[in-house]
Each structure stands twice: as C-alpha cells, then as structure tokens.
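Raw record, unedited: Probable membrane transporter protein
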Amino acid sequence: MLSYAVLVIAGLLAGMINAIAGGGTLLSFPALVWLGVPPIMANATATLTALPGYIGSAWAYRHDIRAEGSLPLRAIVLVSALGGLAGAGLLLITPGDAFVGIVPWLLLTATLLFALGPRLVAAVRARGHAVIGPLVSAVALLLVAGYGGYFNGGLGIMLLAAFSLIGFENLHNMNGLKNLLSAVLSLVSVTTYATAGLIAWESAVVLALATTLGGYIGARQARRIRRMDLLRLLIVAIGAVLTVVFFAL
C-alpha cells in the first residue's frame, strides 16, 4: 500500500507540474528509484508514465497551440521527433549511472534561459532581426529534443526556454506546444525503451493513471492564469526548486 501511495502522489504532482512548467519526471523518477527500480529503467518508466499526462494536457490546450517564430508547426513536430529518437538511442548505450550527473546542470541552464528569455529575444530584435532564422531554430529544438529523448526530467523547462529564444511570446501557446512536443518525444522514446525491455510495467500502470489525472488538472488550472508575469514567475520558481532538489540527490 505504501508503494501504491507513493506512486499515486508522485504521479499526481508530476502530471500537474508537467502541465504548468515541465519537470514532473524529476518527481516520478526518484519515486521509482526509491521503490527499487534501477536508474535507467526508472527513467524509461517515468517517461512512459508521463506520456498520457502530456496527451491530456495538450488536449486541454488544444485551442492555444500554434507556431510562432520562423518554423511552421509541422517542422517543429518533425524536428522534435527526430531529436527524441536520437536521444533515446544515446541512452541505450549509456552506462547505468552516467546520465544522472549532467541533469541538474542542464535543468539549471534551462531555468536561467527561460527567466532571461524575454530580454534575450528583445536584444535580438533590437539588432534588427524580427525572429531567429529557421536553421538556428531547428538546431535549438533538435538539441532540446535530444535531451528529452535522453532524460525526460526537466524537458518542459528546456522546451519553454527554447521557445523563448526562437521568438515565442504567448505563454499559453508555449505551454500547449510544450505538452504536444513532450507527448511526441515521449512516444518516440518509449517505443525505443520498450523494444529494449526497459519498462517496469507493474509500477508504470499506477503511475501513468495518476500522472494523466494530474496533467489534466494542471492544464485546466494553468489556462485560468491571466497574469503572464505571474505564470512566468511560477515556471521559473518550479525550475529553481527542481534544480536544487536534483543537485541534492
């Protein structure tokens, strides 16, 4: 019963955090490790269980999803899927504990980029460039998607940071697209992980149901926030807390 309670609570919180800012896997991943699942299998399982929540959140944001910047929506989805496939393949050849060490640094970088995103975009536009070009935008998304395929924790923060840098401005639009791309990335990654036998299915079922419910609740609540500055502050705060937690692990 304790194991089920841990999985349900971790799943609900992870789903809500994923819907609002991303990073919920940094709750479900440690929960699985604490229950005795090996780290790489815990990462793969946490990615799988986040997938239904991403889909539920993307559905809640379906009216807000649109492209901004220099890349059309189809190109953004395709580039993200390719990056996710590459990242998942890289994880399969990584030693058991090696990938954990770089995660807090990546999350810290993403949080700082998202916090400074509006100023960086304003600086780019002040130099006479309305938006970052399609090639640079595609490379930025490819790198973030590769990270997401490699380790799902903090993916939402990374995507939001990338969106800020390539010209996105509407936070509800960014959140909706973040959830859609997270679903695409997770689907590609999970297919790779499952083929390699890296899913702890018994824990995955409970965690997935809780994460789905949490994702829908979080997305519904986030869309009611009208103060963009408050939503941005909330996202930065979540990123900062998750960074500190993961440095402490």
